[in-house]
Structures are given as structure tokens and as C-alpha cells.
Design goal:
Blueprint lengths: L1 H5 L10 E4 L8 H5 L17 H11 L6 H9 L3 H9 L3 H5 L28 H5 L10 E6 L4 H5 L5 E4 L2 E5 L2 H29 L5 E6 L12 H4 L8 H5 L8 H4 L4 H20 L20 E4 L6 E3 L5 H9 L6 H13 L6 H10 L6 H16 L6
Helix pairs in contact: 3-4, 9-15, 14-15
Length: 387
């Protein structure tokens, strides 16, 4: 939705915007195409799964090169026609199997391109939404879920014990909840609060924010869904659509209870009101005011008794200062957590990462460390996620 708001080609095609668990991260064409170690002069380094790096991996996987350096040399000697023929000779499986850890169809690759035609290539996300000349102005609802990242964390064998590949309990509940809290709070800061502040700066006064907190899933004899998932990513969609989702676990995630039905009625009414009028109206008898710079109202959507307007949302700076404070986290854990918080949602803040805590993470090889963790999980469990 944010991409449509930012695209000049989408002007006039919609009259309201609801952004659920969103964020806008624009990839340059160079980032999508170049080698990951292209950093000389004016050449921008590529994404770990840029087109060049994908060809490298295919050359290695098919035995044409022993390592990345050899693959890179071989690729540099190939003509465009050679690369075209090589790629068109691959099966979909050959290509998709390169992306370890893909979950729910979400693979780690450049996805939204700042090409200068569909999306601007000379503006940051903040610059786009801070000026109505740069985006399609419309009333907006922005929201996230309290436990956004638990859906992704739960799928990793690093976090959860599994039987036949199915997660059923947590290995370290305190660490799991701590990391999920930081990651989910950072998602709200970068996917809701920062964008809302930009929109307000542009003069858009019809900006509303929510946080979905409902976590009253049904317990099963095998899995505690409230503990593993809570108010996780995508958990709100069934309440907007009025029907279970999540496939075979849908009846646990969206049980037939008064609480689930009440929140369904509330959310469907609010979303419908907004589509018609540009304002969600009252929620469970409580006014849903717009998000303001001096009063960042966030409607907390939960069981009826817990629905409220909250303004106590931490900034990214406050979250990062909490990580700096003495704790059981070692330096590597701090840097990995910091990296996830400043790169997962929105434009990656690489400079902020390098400067953070007096440069603590500037020399830390975060990509190499993440790759080593993923490789260890693959070696032990066969996957970094659910099979």
C-alpha cells in the first residue's frame, strides 16, 4: 500500500489506505544487480541475493565453479547472451532452492525497486512522505501487531523445540520474548510512527494508528499458541475478513469465542467506517483520535475490556539505549539484535548501525555471523525454518 502511495502511476486509483504491518524499503537497481562486494568508487554494493550473486550461487550449485571467487571470474567472462541462456536453462526449483530460510513465500531478495518510473529513485522514504508533491495524499491507517516477529522466530529451530518439524515449545522463553519485544517495537517505530510523523509533516491530518494486541488463541494439548505466537504478524487479518486463516491451525488462531467475535465486529466496523468516511470512528465506545506529533494516539485493539488509546510508544533511540544498558547480552547478541531492528523494516539504517554505541558493531561481521548461524542450523536440522 505504501508503494502505491509513493508511485505516481497509482495517482487517482484509490481513495483511502490501510497499511497493516507495513513499511517501505526501496532497493536501487544497483543493489539488485551488483556483486555484494562492489564497493569501489561510485559503485554500490549489491544485495546478498542480487542477480549477480544468484548467478554465482547457481554456478557453484551446478559444479561449474568450486567457490564464489571462481564463480565470479567465470561470470565476468560470460556475455549477456551466455548469462541469459544459463538462467533460462534453470528450473524454478534450481533457483528457489538457493534461498535458505524462506517462509510463507517470503524470500530474502530485493523486492521494491526505486527505478525512477514506478517509484522515485532520488528520494528516501522520509522525503517521499514528508511532501504531498511526492506521494498520493489520502487518509491513512497505519498499524502493527504487538508480537509481529514471533511468527518468524517461532519457525526457527534456534528458538523452538520441534517434533517432525513442528514447533511446540520454546527453548529459552525469556530470550524469545525479549528479542520479540525489541523486534516488534522497532517494527512499530519504523512502520507506523516514523511514517505517520512524515505524513503529518506533509500536512496530512487524516492519519490514524493502531496496535493489535489480541492473544486469546485456543490452547492445544501439543502447542501453546498464545506463548509461541501471541499477537503475531498476520494475526489481525482474520478479524478484518471475518473468517479463520492460518490453514490447519486457523481454528486455534481464530477460535469461536465471544472475545474473537466481538473484536471481529469492532475491526470490521472500524475498517468499513474508514473506507466510507476517512475516519474509523469510535471503537468499543472509545474515540479513536488521529495520530498527532504532540499526541501520538495509537488505538490498542484487544479484548473489549483492554481496548484503549495509548501514547506511550518508545522511539527507536530509546529502544537502542535499552540494548546498550548492562544486561546478559554479549556484544555479538547486541549487534545482531541492533541489525535486525534497523534493517528489517523500512530503509536500512547502515550508518546508524555502524555508529551505534560508540561504534561497537562497526567491525562486527554481521552478515558473516548470520550466515554461519544459518549454515549451522541447516547442518543440524536441515533448514533454518519449517520444512
Amino acid at each position: 500500500m505504501l508503494s502505491m502511495m509513493a508511485s505516481p502511476l497509482a495517482k487517482g486509483l484509490f481513495h483511502k489506505a490501510i497499511v497493516e504491518s507495513g513499511g517501505l524499503s526501496l532497493n536501487s537497481i544497483a543493489n539488485a544487480e551488483n556483486y555484494s562486494d562492489d564497493e569501489s568508487g561510485n559503485t554500490e554494493s549489491g544485495h546478498p541475493f542480487s542477480s549477480r550473486e544468484v548467478v554465482n550461487q547457481l554456478l557453484i550449485a551446478q559444479g561449474k565453479a568450486a567457490d564464489r571467487a571462481t564463480a565470479k571470474s567465470l561470470q565476468d567472462a560470460m556475455s549477456d547472451e551466455d548469462i541469459y541462456a544459463f538462467l533460462h536453462g534453470q528450473s524454478p526449483d534450481n533457483i528457489l532452492n538457493l534461498y535458505n530460510g524462506a517462509f510463507g513465500g517470503m524470500i530474502n531478495s530485493p523486492a521494491v525497486f526505486a527505478d525512477g518510473h514506478v517509484l522515485p529513485n532520488d528520494l528516501s522514504t522520509a522525503e517521499i512522505f514528508s511532501n504531498t508533491a511526492n506521494y498520493n495524499e489520502t487518509p491513512v491507517i497505519l498499524g502493527t501487531n504487538r508480537d509481529e516477529v514471533k511468527l518468524f522466530m517461532m519457525m526457527s529451530p534456534e528458538s523452538a523445540n520441534r517434533v517432525f518439524g513442528i514447533p511446540y515449545s520454546l527453548k529459552d522463553a525469556d530470550k524469545y520474548n525479549r528479542d520479540a519485544s525489541y523486534g516488534s517495537d522497532a517494527w512499530k517505530v519504523r512502520g507506523v510512527d516514523s511514517i505517520a510523523e512524515n505524513l503529518l509533516a506533509s500536512g496530512n491530518k487524516d492519519v490514524f494508528a493502531y496496535r493489535f494486541d489480541w492473544d486469546e488463541q485456543a490452547e492445544s494439548w501439543f502447542i501453546s499458541f498464545p506463548k509461541l505466537l501471541g499477537a503475531t504478524h498476520g494475526g489481525e487479518i482474520a478479524f478484518v475478513m471475518g473468517a479463520p486463516m492460518f490453514g490447519p491451525i486457523g481454528d486455534y488462531m481464530y477460535p469461536d469465542t465471544d472475545s474473537a467475535q466481538e473484536l471481529t465486529d469492532i475491526m470490521m466496523t472500524a475498517w468499513g467506517n474508514f473506507a466510507r468516511t476517512g475516519a474509523p470512528g469510535a471503537v468499543a465506545g472509545k474515540d479513536w483520535p488521529p495520530f498527532l506529533a504532540e499526541a501520538p494516539h495509537t488505538m490498542v485493539l484487544d479484548g473489549v475490556a483492554d481496548i484503549r488509546v495509548d501514547m506511550a510508544s518508545p522511539t527507536l533511540g530509546q529502544l537502542l539505549r535499552e540494548i546498550e544498558a548492562p544486561s546478559s547480552l554479549d556484544s555479538a547478541e547486541r549487534c545482531l539484535l541492533m541489525w535486525e531492528m534497523v534493517t528489517n523494516i523500512g530503509q536500512p539504517l547502515y550508518d546508524d548501525y555502524a555508529r551505534w554505541n560508540n561504534g561497537e558493531c562497526a567491525e562486527f561481521d554481521v552478515r558473516g555471523t548470520k550466515a554461519a548461524i544459518e549454515n549451522a542450523l541447516i547442518e543440524t536440522y536441515g533448514s533454518t525454518s519449517l520444512p
